[in-house]
Design a protein that fits this description.
heterotrimer; A mainly alpha (about 625); B alpha/beta (about 160); C mainly alpha (about 290); B: alpha/beta; Rossmann fold; two-stranded antiparallel ribbon; 5 helices; about 15% strand; globular; C: about 290 residues; mainly alpha; 11 helices
Chain lengths: ~625, ~160, ~290
């Protein structure tokens, strides 16, 4: 079984090749081929291991300790050098701490070998496919995007070779992270993703990018440190470094390592109080955001937490994790109402949805893990699509403000359609995300613990605001102030690579929505059965209703649209209070001055004020985090 | 009895009236006169209205507005010109800006006399207009049927 | 699923418009009487609907009609699925979908009146949705089920167990039925500051569909009210009727509020009355365990 290793190594090798190719066209071809090959390998791995899930592989890797130590030190040294160059003391101290932990750690872990190096179960497969396919499509998209980006932004130094290299290594790191069962190996790849995100966030090299890149770096080194300390404590007290052994060492022994690792997961998943790093990360070029938000980085965080879920069930740590998750869910959703920058809205929605996944992991009943599974899947697909479409749209409109997306359905019909699909999958009733939300809601209601009403109420309020900010955006996209205007005027910078990867994702998203009962039956149920000894399946009637609704929601508007396109020859003007208007709702104002109608949406800033919400969210979550460690240590 | 006659929805526009007639129009909605008993609703939205109640004379500034409201109403529609001004410009006929009665801009179906018009006569005008609407509807249907008969041989010839 | 539920759902499909139309007609008559007027005939809404469908109005754009028809289909489907015995918690999300279609239809026109109406309707949705979910949670705490038939057959005086939730639902009902003081997105009364707001660009059959969808909606919303009184046949008749008249009364004696007050008051009611009503259930459950 060398396929997992090949899978991890392939993107990295291609990344190195891309690093040395100077010719743009050749490099683009290599990167595209790399994306396709690694996606094919991911699918191949799935097919190969499918009959024997969950698969455990034990490998004797010679000089593993030395290799990992070397890797850690190189990364830490890189961070330290960057910190010294930019005079950032905090980062330097963190890097030094990282070195110390990396050097001291082997004293406890020496002699302890992981019994199982790699564990592949359905969750791993889900992650591998998400990384391979969604990540691969983002890589292809990036080849088109970065070309236009460099043309549009001559002030940014052209570092596309580094970009391709880091981008591909990022994918490799993610593969290693989700496949490894040996915690030390997992930690190594964990740090790789930290490094990759740091480089990518700082791509533009201006002041803001640097600041945000270092913010992300600081927090993620902190998370990595917690992870490392967790492993050391686990090795010292329980004598194991196996992820899957965590459940067998006993609750008292596992408490501290699990709390440490949960903290690492919370950092990566950008939960409060660590959210600012992800919000800051949007300064990077859009493909980076797409990657960070959908298939890598934040998904690594929730992946770890779901892995921990069986150990978290019913513990104070699990409870705190769930509370932090729901707090992040509602704060993210609330802030998103008041924002008008498209990327920021998407980032906040990511934070919010990840919060929900974290809740599911923290409480950890099979039903909630089921929900988390689908949240990961649908969120990855839809969010990647949305980020990519927003990025492409901004080249045409020159703006990321959603107000400037008014009437996009006329100006950029293809991008607008993809955005509509992405937004629909994110929140519209019968589609993926909502099924998970509903399942989670039902699970919360069924619980008898005091946490149940808290979850129910916060989820209800959070969901309501989610509808508000998504529908507002959807409404802007389809505004037809001038139905007769020529189509697609702002789409000339839209490259084929971008359209191809986006439409593939859109098709994937719709497919996933329609086939989710099969995914539930063949993938999620067996996983729950093997991990928890009990399965969760949706009630037959609900499945029928849901699938019917999905089909109706797709087919009815489409059908009606086709009919109305054919039938509508005459249009009447929009109601303008009796004012005669010209095309585009231009009317004669006072003293005969011509004006066009300008519309602005509500943002309810008074009620959903970002600084206030963020401040209180961070304050509460810090208290919760301290409580978590307090209870564990006492 | 046609459906349109039982549910005449109104839009009321004050062209350049002295507000006397407008107060009387609003009086029609009060408990004393209760226009809603005939199914009337004052919508304010031309797209939902069947009858256009217009008070006052037309002038250069409001002619486009009057035309636009009239155009945005779906067929069939009726116009009720209320008061002396809407008929001829009334006491303002000699004003520098006044163009005259509403009929200069859009076809009027019913004139309600008075300065200001009485609520009873306004209501009477609305009921008359509703009857006219029903007739127009009938005529439209007949015309459509006739057109369909006339069209079919012509269409076949074209093919 | 019990045998009668399918019949109930089919009856809803067939009779829904008649019941919904009568609900509308009676409320107009009662409103008129409260104001000392004669008022329109009780079957006036049916005349209006017939007229609306006999008119022809060109749409503002090619998206508008598809969205309105989708709104109608999903609004009707919501009620059908509720009565048919599907999980109401799931269906309530479909209800949101229906509302979204109407909001999008208004947004698509580009008219400022429609757009602000749509914005306000969205804010109203945000305002009432938490309370709707809390209502269902309340039903679940009483009946242990999310199915209409089970909740109706629970045999307990639900209204006495869920007085706060009931209050919250009535609050929400006023918003959902767009009655004063929460008729801020579009109004049944004349002369709103947004003209017709959400429906400003709808006329003829399009408006007819929206009206018809409203009738269907009012039927299943009063169906939810019925669930509070289902334990006793007399209460089952009187309860929804009383609620109905109280809502008409409120519609007549209050002035329209601003969206700020609508949003904050709805959320405060949801938290105070809704959550406050739910907490004892959890406390009792803790004691029993």
């Amino acid at each position: 079984m060398t396929l997992p290793i090949i899978l991890t190594a392939t993107p990295c090798v291609f990344g190195l090749i891309a690093l040395v190719i100077r010719d743009y066209r050749l490099r683009r071809a290599v990167v595209t081929i790399a994306a396709l090959i690694q996606a094919a390998l991911a699918v191949l791995l799935t097919i190969q291991v499918w009959p024997s899930l969950p698969l455990r592989i034990t490998m004797q890797i010679p000089h593993l300790d030395q290799f990992l130590l070397g890797g850690e030190l190189v990364l830490a040294a890189y961070f330290a050098i960057r910190a010294v160059r930019t005079k950032r003391l905090l980062t330097l101290l963190l890097a030094i701490a990282q070195v110390v932990v990396a050097l001291v750690g082997p004293t406890w872990t020496s002699g302890i070998e992981a019994q199982t190096t790699i564990v592949i179960d359905q969750l791993t497969i889900l992650m591998v496919l998400v990384i391979g396919i969604v990540g691969g499509l983002i890589v292809i998209y990036a080849t088109g995007y970065m070309h236009t980006f460099q043309e549009e932004h001559p002030e940014v130094r052209d570092r596309r070779r580094t970009f391709s290299f880091v981008f591909l290594v990022f994918l490799g790191g993610m593969y290693g992270l989700v496949l490894a069962n040996d915690l030390r190996i997992m930690l190594f790849f964990w740090e790789i993703t930290t490094w990759a995100s740091f480089v990518l966030i700082g791509y533009n090299e201006d002041k803001v990018s640097q600041k945000n890149a270092f913010l992300a770096l600081n927090l993620n080194i902190l998370g990595g440190l917690a992870f490392a300390i967790g492993i050391i404590v686990l090795a010292a007290t329980a004598g194991t470094v196996d992820m899957d052994k965590l459940g067998t060492v006993g609750a008292a022994v596992a408490a501290i390592p699990v709390a440490c690792m949960a903290l690492a997961g919370l950092v990566k998943a950008a939960q409060l109080p660590f959210t600012p790093w992800l919000l800051g990360a949007m300064v990077a070029p859009t493909p980076v955001s797409a990657l960070l938000h959908s298939s890598t980085m934040v998904k690594a965080g929730v992946f770890l937490l779901i892995r921990l879920a069986p150990v978290l069930v019913g513990t104070p740590t699990g409870l705190v994790v769930a509370l932090i998750g729901i707090l992040t869910f509602i704060v993210g959703a609330f802030i998103a109402v008041s924002r008008r920058n498209a990327k920021r809205i998407l980032a906040l929605s990511t934070v919010s949805n990840l919060g929900l996944i974290v809740v599911c992991a923290g409480i950890g009943t099979p039903q909630l893990i089921w929900a988390a599974f689908f949240l990961i899947l649908f969120h990855a697909v839809a969010k990647a699509l949305l980020f990519m479409a927003v990025g492409s749209s901004s080249f045409g409109t020159g703006s990321l403000d959603i107000e400037d997306m008014g009437g996009l359905i006329v100006k950029q019909p293809r991008i607008a359609l993809l955005l509509v699909i992405g937004i629909a999958v994110m929140f519209v009733a019968p589609f993926g995300m909502l099924i998970s939300k509903w399942t989670a809601m039902e699970a919360f209601i069924n619980m008898t613990s005091w946490i149940s009403p808290v979850m129910v109420v916060l989820l209800a309020f959070g969901s309501a605001t989610t509808v508000l900010f998504w529908t507002k955006w959807l409404g802007l996209l389809i505004r037809l102030s001038d139905p007769a205007a020529p189509r697609g005027l702002l789409e000339d910078k839209y490259s084929g690579a971008e359209f191809l990867s986006q439409s593939s994702l859109a098709i994937l998203a719709i497919l996933a929505c329609v086939t989710f009962p099969f995914i539930s039956h063949y993938v999620v149920s067996p996983f729950l059965l093997s991990a928890y000894g009990q399965a969760f399946t949706l009630d037959q009637g609900n499945v029928v209703v849901t699938v019917l609704m999905v089909v109706m929601t797709v087919v009815i508007p489409w059908l009606l649209l086709t009919i109305s396109r054919r039938g509508t020859k005459r249009l009447s003007g929009a109601y303008m209070s009796g004012r005669p208007t010209e095309a585009g709702l231009v009317f004669k104002g006072t003293a005969g001055v011509k004006k066009a109608v300008e519309l602005r949406s509500y943002y309810l800033v008074k009620y959903f004020d970002e600084p206030w919400l963020l401040r209180w969210g961070i304050f509460l979550s810090i208290i919760l985090t301290i409580t978590m460690f307090g209870t564990v240590l006492i | 009895m046609s459906a349109i006659e039982k549910s005449p929805w109104l839009i009321h526009y004050d062209a350049s009236s002295c507000n006397g007639c407008d107060i009387e129009v609003l009086a029609c909605l009060t408990p004393m006169y209760d226009a809603e008993r005939f199914g009337c609703i004052v919508t304010g939205d031309p797209k939902q209205a069947d009858i256009f109640l217009i008070t006052g004379s037309v002038n250069n500034l409001n002619i486009p507005v009057v035309k636009n409201i009239y155009e945005q109403m779906p067929e069939p529609k009726a116009v009720v010109a209320i008061g002396a001004c809407a008929y001829s410009g009334g006491v303002f006929a000699e004003c520098y800006n006044v163009q005259g009665g509403v009929a200069k801009v859009i076809p009027v179906d019913v004139y309600v006399p008075g300065c200001a018009a009485k609520p009873e006569s306004i209501l009477d005008g609305v009921v008359r207009a509703a009857q006219i609407l029903a007739e127009k509807k009938k005529a439209m249907r007949k015309a459509r049927r006739a057109a369909r008969h006339a069209e079919s041989p012509a269409q076949e010839a074209a093919k | 699923m019990k045998g009668y539920e399918l019949y109930l759902a089919i009856a809803y499909l067939v009779l829904g418009p008649f019941v919904g139309g009568l609900i509308d007609g009676v409320s107009r008559k009662v409103t008129a009487r409260l104001q000392g007027r004669v008022g329109p005939p009780i079957i006036q809404p049916f005349y209006d609907l017939r007229k609306l469908f006999s008119r022809k109005l060109d749409p503002v754009n090619s998206l508008q009609m598809p969205l309105v028809v989708s709104h109608f289909i999903f609004a009707v489907a919501t009620g059908f699925l509720i009565f048919e015995g599907s999980d109401i918690l799931l269906i309530i999300f479909v209800l949101t979908l229906a509302a979204i279609f109407l909001v999008l239809a208004a947004y698509s026109t580009g008219s400022p009146f429609s757009a602000i109406g749509a914005d306000r309707e969205l804010i109203m949705m945000t305002a009432y949705e938490p309370m709707v979910i809390l209502t269902l949670v309340g039903f679940f705490k009483v009946a242990g089920s999310f199915h209409f038939g089970d909740i109706a057959a629970v045999g307990k005086p639900t209204i006495l167990l869920l007085p706060g939730i009931f209050l919250g639902l009535v609050f929400v009902l006023i918003m959902k039925l767009r009655k004063s003081p929460f008729d801020i997105s579009t109004s049944h009364h004349a002369h709103q500051e947004l003209v017709k707001g959400l429906t400003a660009d709808l006329g003829g059959p399009a408006l007819g569909l929206v009206e018809l969808a409203d009738w269907y909606e009012s039927v299943y919303l009063y169906g939810l009210v019925f669930l509070f009184f289902s334990w006793n046949p007399i209460a089952a008749v009187l309860g929804p009727l009383a609620t109905y008249f109280i809502i008409i009364l409120i519609d007549n004696v209050t002035a329209r509020v601003k969206w700020e007050l609508a949003l904050t008051s709805a959320w405060i009611v949801a938290i105070v009355a809704g959550v406050g009503n739910l907490i004892p259930f959890y406390l009792i459950a803790r004691v029993v365990h």
